[in-house]
Design a protein that fits this description.
The complex is a heterotrimer. Chain B is α/β, with parallel strands linked by helices. Chain B has 12 helices and 11 strands. The radius of gyration of chain B is 19 Å and the shape is globular. Chain C is built from 20 helices and no strands. The chains are: A mainly alpha, B alpha/beta, C mainly alpha. The complex binds sodium ion (2 copies).
């Protein structure tokens, strides 16, 4: 029963993170299109836009920040695996738990300060410093979501490793991944 | 007793950087060593656009920000620094801040965001550098010029197209012709960026005759100081303002000489009609900026009353 | 805690968490915040918002996704492969010829981009798979990508050079010219290394003709290979041209490359709408990984700078009491050591204004010193345990490549860079000849 609940939890986190990661990557063609359009507007039409610069930077932030959790799911984040590749699966799980804990700690701080910035941005109506001056608050909302999902993914991975250490059997099927570099 | 971190936007070892170093030393001296000041330069821990926020949050105790970088956070700062077409007369500016009430408005504006606003200082004018000589003001028509915020709007009124661009991209963009010109925060900025190597013509009319920049302190750090130390810090910022005024003029002329030696030329002297068109381009900006918040409005009202 | 002790503790923590295999970006950020909390207090968390804004709102870094996207589109449409197929058709008889064409393509990419990340990840996107598919030794292939991608900051335009020139009030034009001969020397030495090592060990770089099972291409196939290959090359020239003729900034030209890659694919009937998405998906992952490292590393170095590491380096530089050339060598060593913990931009921002006046007062040319600094940084970002270039390379490498293999694969190429550095140090003329000739 408990086991089923844990598996369900892991699968739901995986699903939401995957969905967000894929959705963010759909912005990539849009980003390239906007930057190319700015060149077209400036060089061919002779009138640079006031919105392309900030829009492309916002998209850049959205794509890369929101992609963090999904990259963790795919074990794409870079690590120095010299020792890691040589140790037993149990030791790997211990290593993971320590590393992920540090990561979760860092991400929680980002959520905390981003929340502070969000309220500040709403209170004082913070904007970008450009002529177009788009509002900033949505960037902080996005950061909170991005880090929240990243935390959820790391927690799910930690849970997986704790379960493995406690029971000696993996919580999820092997192909769903427990370790870096597997 | 008190450890302060003081950030500015200049690089370590530059002439302006030394002025901020002096300010730090003067605070230490005038406080009899009770305040210890660590001076941080460009890139050292805080980005240019993050400086104001860093002082607000107390990460940095004291900062010398460039208000255009924070136009979206504190719009009044853009009026404070000086809208294009504003006065360049240092006596008028001094009276504007200390007698006509700008100081009070700005104290409140910065205060509303948890900052203490200290003695401002004046830096030299903003000029525009172009690849081709500007024979008359009409030549600005269609030119692509890197100019942020209010300066961009001003140039748009003259028919130019303002372009947004990172500072480190200016050199290459001028060299290849992505842009036809760029403003610099002052002559020294143009010199440091080596822009004269790739664009030779300086337009004689400044976009802003003088720039007034603030020194801001985190409020809770300020409130921790006993009154005599607050006075000491204020006195140090007053000395700093004087040094900025004399030194920056000296360095500005040095920078001009150096750039001339590297091939810089002034565009031809503008005609009376040009000067008129130039002034007109700045006229609508005041109304536009007055709408950007109550402090901006108050500043503009005072400005219109004084006639500066 | 004094800054020396703090630096030691930070370094120790990095080594521990890197050894545990923690994700690099999160580990660097987490270490800085944990140590920061104990030495500074909760206030240090405020370094995060300003660092977030300065990393995510950087138009310079925006070059990274755009160029990778171009590379991914070329790869997915098969046009990237075609470029190397064509080069094989022309140079196939020379052993290691593919690696040599990769170095050539990387030089062109280096002339487009101005930062290391964009150089390595673009070169990797386009050129890694063709080498691996042909059975090239993996270490050779990875090393070539790293060395070729590093040319991004050595061949103009180069952002670190612009930063050096601004920080020390020197001519950017002279810096760009000064780096040309060292860049050329690097390219020649890289090619020499590839040729010699393939000659000594032929199995590292199989030739197409070694594989007798495959029938020789028909004239029609040959024509198609050449047509596709040359048009891919043409695209690269168009992107370069858009920079040189002033149509776009280096960052923006990445987007022009994306549009060009799509048009090429449509023209050669290789375009499928799904390609846009699958390439976008690969790009998003690669860039996300890179940006989380850049962000975590920036939090780390911003904390370290706020604690005053720059004054430690300044004191060290000032206290050196050695003969002039030894001081220059000491500076190089300090920067190499800093490269273990700090990234390329911060090294320039920190060391250029500290060291250059001393070097000039000793009678050395600032441009020469600046080019040495760039060469040095190039090495610093490739040296373990903490080198951006290593992480970029691992990001683009096949998933079963471990960090140990990355370290081993870059070693000979670091040696090439080191040789160039030493040659330029001994013979300043390599750097100064061209700028003196052109801009006397
Ligand atoms: Na380059
Ligand atoms: Na390194």
């Amino acid at each position: 029963m408990f086991h089923t609940f844990l598996r369900g939890l892991c699968h739901s986190i995986d699903f939401i993170v995957m969905l967000t990661g894929k959705a963010a990557s759909y912005l990539m063609p849009l980003l390239a299109g906007i930057v190319a359009f700015e060149v077209f507007a400036r060089y061919v039409l002779g009138s640079p836009t006031i919105w392309a610069y900030d829009t492309s930077l916002f998209l850049f932030g959205y794509i890369t920040a929101l992609g963090g959790a999904y990259a963790q799911q795919k074990r794409a984040h870079i690590n120095v695996d010299i020792l890691y590749l040589k140790v037993s699966p149990k030791a790997k799980s211990v290593f993971n738990i320590i590393g992920f804990a540090l990561g979760i700690f860092f991400l929680i701080i980002i959520v905390k300060v981003s929340t502070g910035k969000l309220f500040e941005a709403l209170e004082y109506d913070y904007r970008r410093e450009s002529e177009w001056a788009p509002p900033m608050y949505h960037f902080w909302i996005m950061m909170i979501i991005a880090c929240g999902l990243f935390i959820a993914q790391l927690a799910r991975d930690t849970l997986n490793d704790v379960y493995y250490l406690a029971t000696g059997t993996p919580l999820l099927k092997q192909k769903e991944g427990t370790h870096h570099g597997d | 007793e008190y450890n302060w971190r003081f950030s500015n936007l200049y690089s370590r070892g530059t002439a302006f950087g030394e002025l901020y170093e002096n300010l730090g030393e003067n605070i230490e001296e005038l406080s009899d060593g009770r305040i210890n000041v660590q001076v941080l330069y460009s890139g050292e821990g805080v980005g240019t656009t993050g400086l104001l926020g860093a002082v607000k949050s107390g990460l940095i105790t004291m900062g010398a920000p460039f208000q255009s970088m924070h136009a979206g956070e504190l719009p009044a700062g853009v009026v404070e620094i000086g809208l294009p077409g504003g006065t360049a007369d240092t006596d008028e500016l001094y009276s504007l801040f200390h007698e006509k009430g700008w100081g009070d408005v700005l104290e409140e504006a910065y205060g509303s965001q948890g900052l203490v606003w200290l003695e401002p200082y004046i830096q030299p004018p903003v000029y525009i550098l172009t690849k081709e000589p500007i024979e008359s003001v009409e030549d600005f028509e269609g030119l692509k010029i890197r100019a942020p915020g209010a300066y961009g709007k001003f140039l748009r009124n003259l028919g130019a197209s303002p372009v947004s661009m990172a500072w480190s991209e200016i050199y290459t963009s001028l060299a290849t012709g992505v842009i036809d010109g760029s403003i610099g925060s002052n002559m020294i900025d143009h010199r440091d960026g080596n822009h004269v190597e790739v664009a030779k013509y300086m337009y004689p009319l400044p976009l802003a005759g003088a720039q007034v920049l603030p020194i801001v302190v985190n409020r809770s750090a300020w409130n921790k100081l006993p009154d005599e130390l607050k006075e000491a810090v204020r006195e140090a910022t007053e000395i700093h303002a004087e040094q900025q005024l004399t030194k920056s003029q000296e360095w500005e002329s040095e920078a001009i000489e150096e750039m001339k030696a590297n091939g810089m030329q002034w565009s031809p002297e503008p005609s009376e009609a040009d000067k008129e068109a130039w002034a007109e381009a700045g006229a609508t900006l005041r109304e536009e900026y007055a709408e950007q918040g109550k402090y901006s409005k108050q500043l503009i009202e005072i400005l219109n009353e004084t006639g500066y | 805690m004094g800054i020396e002790l703090l630096t030691g503790v930070l370094l120790l923590c990095i080594l521990i968490f890197f050894a545990l295999g923690a994700p690099v970006g999160l580990a660097l950020g987490g270490i800085a915040m944990a140590i920061g909390y104990t030495t500074w207090g909760e206030g240090i968390f405020n370094v995060i918002p300003t660092t977030l804004e300065s990393t995510f709102f950087s138009f310079i870094l925006l070059a990274i996704p755009l160029y990778i996207y171009m590379g991914q589109l070329l790869t997915k449409s098969g046009i990237g492969d075609a470029m190397f197929n064509a080069s094989q058709l022309l140079l196939g008889r020379v052993r290691g010829s593919l690696a040599i064409s990769v170095i050539g393509v990387c030089s062109m990419i280096g002339a487009m981009v101005g930062i290391i990340g964009a150089g390595i990840m673009t070169s990797g996107s386009i050129a890694l798979r063709p080498m691996l598919n042909r059975g090239y030794n993996r270490r050779l292939a990875l090393g070539v990508i790293m060395a070729g991608g590093g040319l991004g900051i050595l061949i103009p335009p180069s952002i670190p050079m612009i930063m050096f020139a601004a920080a020390t009030q020197n001519s950017v034009g002279r810096m760009f010219l000064g780096a040309m001969m060292p860049a050329l020397l690097t390219i020649v030495l890289l090619i020499t290394y590839v040729v010699v090592s393939c000659w000594l060990n032929p199995s590292r770089a199989p030739r197409d003709t070694d594989n007798n099972d495959e029938p020789a291409p028909t004239p029609k196939q040959k024509f198609l290979i050449l047509r596709d290959g040359l048009s891919a090359l043409l695209l690269i020239f168009v992107v370069l041209g858009s920079i040189i003729t002033g149509i776009a900034t280096p960052t923006e030209s990445g987007a022009i490359g994306v549009v060009g890659a799509i048009l090429l694919a449509i023209l050669f009937k290789r375009f499928r709408p799904a390609m846009l998405q699958s390439a976008g998906f690969q790009t998003a992952t690669l860039v996300s990984v890179a940006m989380w490292i850049i962000f975590g590393a920036s939090v780390f170095s911003n904390f370290h700078l706020l604690m005053g590491v720059q004054s430690m380096v300044a004191d060290l530089a000032a206290s050196l009491d050695l003969p002039p050339i030894m001081i220059i060598i000491m500076f190089q060593l300090i920067m190499l050591l800093l490269g273990f913990i700090i990234d390329e931009f911060i090294i320039v921002l920190m060391c250029a204004p500290l060291f250059t006046p001393i070097a000039v007062s000793l009678g050395y040319d600032p441009i020469w010193f600046g080019v040495l600094m760039i060469l040095n940084i190039l090495i610093a970002v490739q040296t373990p345990p903490y080198g951006f270039a290593l992480f970029y390379l691992k990001g683009i490498a096949p998933s079963d490549v471990g960090m140990g293999e990355i370290y081993r694969s870059v070693t000979p190429f670091i040696a090439v860079n080191l040789v160039v550095l030493i040659l330029c140090m001994i013979f300043p003329e390599i750097v100064l000849w061209l700028p003196n000739k052109v801009m006397s």
